[in-house]
Amino acid sequence: MRPVHVIIPLMLAVVLAVLPAHAAPAEQGAIITLFWGEGCPHCEKEKAFLKELQKALPGLRVKEYEVWKNKENGALYKQVLRTAGIQQAGVPATVVGTAVYMGFNDRTKQSIEEAVRRCVRDGCPDGVAELSKRGLAQDGATAGQVSVPFLGSIDPGSVSLPVFTIIIGALDSFNPCAFFVLLFLLSLLVHVRSRKRMFLIGGIFVLFSGLIYFLFMAAWLNVFMIVGQITAITVAGGVVALAVGGINVKDFFLFKQGVSLVIPESAKPKLFERMRGLLKTQTMPALIGGTIVLSISANAYELLCTAGFPMVYTRVLTLHRLTPFQYYQYLVLYNIVYVIPLAVIVAVITITLGARKLTEWQGRQLKLVSGLMMLSLGVVLIMNPALLNNALASVVMLGAVLVASAVIIIAMKTMRPEVVKQI
Questions:
Q1: What is the band of 231 on the pLDDT scale with cuts at 50, 70, 90?
Q2: Separation of alpha carbons 331 and 211, rounded Å
Q3: Rounded to whole angstroms, how far apart are CA atoms 39 and 229?
Q4: Which terminal residue of the chain has fewer beta carbons within 10 Å of its beta carbon, N or C?
Q5: Angle of CA points 25, 27, 32, to nearest 5°
């Protein structure tokens, strides 16, 4: 029998010889994937985090795909999300193994690091390659798209943009300045007692209001398309939204005190004069021409009341990877939603021949709702623009704004009834 001092070294040698074979997976490393968008601040933070993680874990390899500008990368990203059963389509998104981590904050950072360390230690597949294969096997490369009237084929995962468009367009449509001009015009036309003339003048006014607004938004869109996906521009848009929202909320409590986004008093006599001139017009060409001139003049002042929403919306729109034609399709959808309340007002007053005036209290309430929404959009644009890619987030934001507005209005009526009555 060999001495113990000889056997022990032999056993240690055998163990040391075997260990590298079992540790092989750690040497093979791991491949993870980051889907990001140019101009996304949270994406930049995660990039920096992953670089530090690569220094700590030499076996880690990170693949990056920009999805907002690169069409092929965007298609790959949507396919991965569909296969993983994820509806949210924001960035950043990190694929570790076949797990997908959406967003980047302290909690997801910790989860990603733990998953990556397990992958490097134990080994894991290239998640994007694996999920892509599954997706192709399940439903083909173009599966999941549905045909939507007017907007064409849309991936259900990107439905948040149509939802966001409708929500913001609807909020923007309740514009006190536009209501003031249209209601005053129709109240004058009521005395003519001609439904045909009321419908014609009101319809032309609404049509050109939408057209002028479309051109105004198209100008904003082209500005943002030229400057590109620059984070500073998005932050600047958020700052402007906060400023406009703050002014509108202020107008609820202190109407026309200090800076206000309303039609200047000095401009009203000229608008009223043009409206009264329409009542005296006899020929149809002159009537149509006069209404178009009035629409252009009135909307030039109305843009002062509502510049915030078009600016914010077009900036959010350019954060999505779309073709130029698709951008303009969304502008058309926005403006259709925008003119619907104006068209309803024309139809109701024309049919009933009733005259109604927008009261100051009603105007203040509209300003409160639009102001709170602008404040919300400003905060999101500065803190996390990718949140606006989520349909649920858009709906929740709208619901929160409406609830907060209702609470403030009720509190005002309850605590200061004499002020409300005076208004």
A1: low
A2: 11
A3: 5
A4: N
A5: 80
Rg (CA), the chain: 30
* Coil vs helix vs strand at 94: strand
- Contacts of range 295-298, beta carbons closer than 8 Å, 24 or more positions apart: 295/204, 295/205, 295/207, 295/208, 295/209, 295/212, 296/208, 296/212, 297/270, 297/271, 298/178, 298/181, 298/205, 298/209, 298/271
DSSP state, residue 267 = G
Distance CA 321, CA 236 (A): 20
For residue 192 the two structure tokens come to 């003519």
Place of tokens 């989520």: 390
Mean pLDDT of the chain: 74
Amino acid occupying residue 383: M
Q: Of 144, 170, 195, which residue constitutes the final position of a domain?
A: 144
Residue 259 reports pLDDT greater than 60: yes
Q: Two tokens at 365?
A: 């309430």
Higher pLDDT, 175 or 218: 218
Chain position carrying tokens 């039609």? 263
- Judge if 186 and 112 occupy the same domain: no
Inter-CA distances, 298 with 233, 247, 265, 295, Å: 30, 21, 13, 5
* Angstrom distance (rounded) from CA 262 to CA 179: 12
In a domain, 15, yes or no: no
Residues 291 and 198 in one domain: yes
Task: Out of 144, 162, 182, pick the residue that ends a domain.
Answer: 144
Are 102 and 173 members of one domain? no
In this predicted structure, the answer to whether residue 332 has a pLDDT above a threshold of 90 is: yes
3-class SS of residue 52:
helix
- Could you tell me the residue range of the domain that residue 251 belongs to? 152-422
Same domain, 74 and 208: no
**What's the CATH code of the domain at 52?**
3.40.30.10
Question: What is the model's pLDDT at position 336?
Answer: 93
> Same domain for 138 and 184?
no
CA distance 248 to 309: 12
With bands split at pLDDT 50, 70 and 90, how would you rate the model's confidence at 143?
Answer: very low
pLDDT beyond 70 at 318: yes
Place 122 in a pLDDT band, splitting at 50, 70 and 90: confident
Q: Is the pLDDT of residue 141 over 80?
A: no
**Would you place residue 170 in the very low, low, confident or very high pLDDT band (cuts 50, 70, 90)?**
confident
